[in-house]
Design brief:
Blueprint (H helix, E strand, L loop, with lengths): L20 H7 L1 H20 L1 H26 L6 H23 L1 H30 L4 H20 L8 H23 L9
Helix pairs in contact: 2-3, 2-7, 3-4, 3-5, 3-7, 4-5, 5-6
């Protein structure tokens, strides 16, 4: 009986929950292209209608919070101890309160989330810049530039707040969708199956 050598190609298991990305893209090229096209279209629409995209994003966040509250409340029935059930119920109440507040006033929620985003960008950028400059690890220059740009962006958003509350979130969502859509389209078009060499 012939034995499999180390140089033999390893067949891809179709039941493998984590197949190699390249093989996964080759087998589902059409789906990845459709996903990228949908994200690219949605991102373009979001960039054109940033105010509507901002409010829609806020509504989605509030709805997800309410859904999470329902899941946490249902989890109390499968809790093994009353402490665990109490923790699930407290989390459900927090999620529910957050979701209802967001959905009750999406404009105020968008303004608050924009301010939180500005603070996070500013603090994260300053920390990244400081660590890069003091540590001077490999690639610290690019890390410092990235941190400085992040802090600058956060400062600009904060300086124009709250007037920019109706378009900042929509702009970020639109850019993210466009970038991810272009990525999936490029992956579907460029990752082609290897062809047999001519003899």
């Amino acid at each position: 009986m012939a034995t499999e050598t180390a140089t033999d190609p390893v067949p891809i298991n179709p039941l493998d929950p984590e197949p190699p990305p390249a093989a996964l893209v080759r087998r589902h090229r059409g789906w990845f292209f459709a996903l990228g096209a949908a994200q690219l279209i949605a991102g373009t629409v979001a960039l054109v209608m940033t105010a509507a995209a901002t409010l829609l994003t806020v509504v989605v966040i509030g709805s997800l919070a309410l859904a999470g509250a329902a899941v946490e409340a249902a989890s109390t029935m499968w809790s093994r101890a009353w402490q665990e059930g109490l923790a699930h119920m407290l989390v459900a109440l927090l999620y529910g309160a957050f979701g209802m507040v967001v959905l009750a006033n999406p404009g105020l929620a968008a303004s608050t989330l924009t301010l939180v985003l500005a603070v996070l960008l500013l603090v994260n950028g300053a920390v990244r810049f400081g660590l890069a400059v003091t540590g001077q690890f490999r690639g610290w220059g690019m890390a410092a530039v990235g941190g400085a740009l992040s802090a600058l962006l956060g400062g600009l958003i904060w300086a124009d707040w709250p007037e920019n509350s109706l378009w900042v979130i929509g702009l970020f969502v639109g850019l993210d969708l466009v970038v991810m859509g272009a990525y999936w389209i490029a992956a579907a078009l460029t990752d082609r199956a290897p062809t047999a060499a001519a003899v």
